[in-house]
Each structure stands twice: as C-alpha cells, then as structure tokens.
Automatic annotation (TrEMBL):
<dbReference type="InterPro" id="IPR000717">
    <property type="entry name" value="PCI_dom"/>
</dbReference>
<dbReference type="Pfam" id="PF01399">
    <property type="entry name" value="PCI"/>
</dbReference>
<protein>
    <recommendedName>
        <fullName>PCI domain-containing protein</fullName>
    </recommendedName>
</protein>
<comment type="similarity">
    <text>Belongs to the CSN7/EIF3M family. CSN7 subfamily.</text>
</comment>
<keyword id="KW-0736">Signalosome</keyword>
<dbReference type="Pfam" id="PF22061">
    <property type="entry name" value="CSN7_HB_subdom"/>
</dbReference>
<dbReference type="GO" id="GO:0008180">
    <property type="term" value="C:COP9 signalosome"/>
</dbReference>
<feature type="region of interest" description="Disordered">
    <location>
        <begin position="185"/>
        <end position="219"/>
    </location>
</feature>
<feature type="domain" description="PCI">
    <location>
        <begin position="1"/>
        <end position="161"/>
    </location>
</feature>
<dbReference type="InterPro" id="IPR045237">
    <property type="entry name" value="COPS7/eIF3m"/>
</dbReference>
Length: 219
C-alpha cells in the first residue's frame, strides 16, 4: 500500500507531516518514497522526526532504512557502497540521486572536478554517462558550471540555491551546537566554583578552629 502525500504542501513538508503518524514498516516505506522522489534533496528535517529516529532501534530492515536516509542527508556514494551489504540495494532513482548529491559534496570542496576523480568516486563506467549525470545536476539546479570535454573536467560555478542554503544552515547548526556546548561547560564551571570556594572556606575554618583550641600542626 503506497503512502500518499498532500500535494498542496511542499514535498518535504508533506512527507514530514506523514512521518508524524507513520510508524514501523509504514515509516520505512515513507523513507523509500522520499529517497525515490526526484524533487527532494534535503533530508535533515525528516531525520529529526521521532518516528523516523525510532527506526534506528527497530528490526534490521528498519535500522537500515534509517542509516540509508542518513547517508543521503550527509554522506556520499562511497559511504553507501562501503555498507551496501547492510543497507540493501538502491533503486535506479535512488542511485542516481545519491550520485548527484555526491557531486554536490565534491563541488563544495573543489570548484574544479576532473572526470577521472568523478568516475572513480561515483563508480561510473563511461564518460558519456558521467556527462549526462552532470548535465542533469545543472538542469536540476543542484549546481551550475560547465563541461570542459577537452580538459576532461567539470568547472563548478556555484551550488544550487537550495543546497547552498542547506550547506550554510549545516555550518550554522554546527556552530550553534559548539556554542551551546561551550556555554554548558562555562555554566558547569561557574556552578563548581562556589562549591570549591565553600570547601576551601570550611577547611580554612576547621584549621583556624584547631589552632584556637591549641591543636597546631605536627612538628
């Protein structure tokens, strides 16, 4: 039975709304539909849904669906192939999408992507297939750039607006997490300081009391 989304909302919003009630096998099916969806390339919001996170503690097939979604959100084609036996086989649509996301990840690190690097990273068997994938990335507005067939390189102009916002948001989120961790450490240090001072005061008071009673240090 296929899970139907509300088409009046954006695809991601609709899928997240469905994830509020989809549990277990239904949630696994929903994840599969999201990964097949050709218009969805950002998955962080879905990963935050409680029913999706609950898959991690479920049966192996449920945990595999959760791990696969994490790879689509943060990983690359090589991350998938290293765990393919555990995660299962991708559909043709999923494989193509993950390879496109891998190109975007590489483009974030370098503005010049040699064909040889892409062929190896994406495990693509021919230059024609690679160029078709890159053209789809450009037409799909995941990134912009040009093919230099003579030099066998793809020159990246910029990442697509949506994925650029996601990349910036990820960096902001990381900075926020680090800031909160630092603030928590500072708060813990402040809370510990009065206790340490109180201990020192108690020890000092006990020492003074002993001296007042005639109990000095041993000589």
């Amino acid at each position: 039975m296929s899970v139907a989304a509300d088409t009046s909302a954006s695809p991601l919003t609709a899928e997240c709304a469905l994830a509020k009630s989809a549990k277990g096998a239904a949630c696994v099916q929903l994840v599969g539909q999201v990964l097949d969806n050709p218009s969805l390339y950002v998955f962080g919001e879905l990963l935050d849904m409680p029913n999706v996170q609950a898959l991690a503690d479920g049966p192996p097939a449920h945990a595999a669906a959760y791990e696969l979604l994490k790879i689509f959100a943060y990983g690359t084609w090589k991350d998938y192939t290293a765990r393919a036996a555990q995660l299962g086989q991708l559909s043709a649509a999923q494989a193509t999408k993950l390879k496109k996301l891998s190109v975007v990840s590489l483009a974030a690190a370098s503005k010049s992507l040699p064909y040889d690097t892409l062929l190896s990273e994406l495990e693509i068997g021919s230059v024609r297939e690679l160029e078709n994938l890159l053209i789809e990335c450009v037409y799909g507005e995941l990134l912009s750039g040009k093919l230099d067939q003579q030099a066998r390189v793809f020159e990246v102009a910029q990442m697509g607006e949506l994925l650029s916002r996601w990349h910036s948001g990820a960096l902001d989120a990381l900075g926020s997490i680090r800031s909160k961790a630092h603030a928590a450490s500072a708060t813990a240090a402040e809370l510990n300081t009065p206790v340490e001072n109180e201990d020192k005061q108690r020890k000092s008071g006990r020492t003074k009391g002993k001296l007042a009673m005639g109990f000095g240090p041993r000589k």
